[in-house]
Amino acid sequence: MKPRILILGAGFGGLELSTSLSEAMGENIDVTLIDKSDGFVFGFSKLDLLFGRSPEEMIRNPYSDYAKPGVRLLRETITAIDAEAKRVTTDKTVHEADILVIALGADYDVSSTPGIVMGVNEFYSVAGAAHLAKVLPRFQGGDVVVGVCGAPYKCPPAPAECALMMHDYVKARGLDGATRITLVNPLPSPVPPSPDTSKAILAAFKERGITFIPSTRVMAVEGKTVALDNGSTLPCDLFLGVPKNRAADVVVAAGLTESGWVPVDPYTLQTRHPGVYAVGDLANTGVPKAGVYAEGAARAVAANIISQLRNEEQTARNPGAGSCYIEFGADRIARVDVDFLSGPKPFGTFHGASQALRVDKEHFGSSRRARWFGRQAGGGNRQI
Question: Positive or negative, the Cα torsion across 286, 292, 294, 300?
Answer without folding.
Answer: negative
